[in-house]
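To: structure subgroup
Subject: Chain for Friday's discussion

All,

I'm putting the inputs and outputs inline so they're searchable in the archive.
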Amino acid sequence: AEDLSKAEAVLGEQQDDDLYVQIEKERAELKKKGGLTPVTFDSFVEWKKRKDEERKKSDIEDAKRALAAASKLKGRSGRELFAQLAAQNADLFLDDDEADDDWMVREEEDDDEEVYDIHVTGTSFSLQKAGAKEGGQP
């Protein structure tokens, strides 16, 4: 009994049902105001279904708007760009017969690093010391 009186002095009176009483008072006030729809399980299920359908329609509309905005931002296709460049400069895309000749010139180096050429033939390849002739060593 002494512990209970100490607890009441610190915490106030024991009010276990205080929350429930407060909820019931608020419910009574809402009923007095009127104009509210009582919620039953069936009415909640109908409301939830209607809201889900509205949300789906809204999501679809949002996706359509985003797609329309993205299509406006989309530029010309590669084919259109190629045709425009070809029309502006007819020689731009002509092949040069000597385009692949001497594409890389190797500089002579004085260091001791060994350099190899890679020769690819079909599906096989071979390594040859740089500067060596096809048949032998330098």
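Points worth raising on Friday:
The chain has a mean pLDDT of 76.
The beta strands are 116-121, 124-129.

D.
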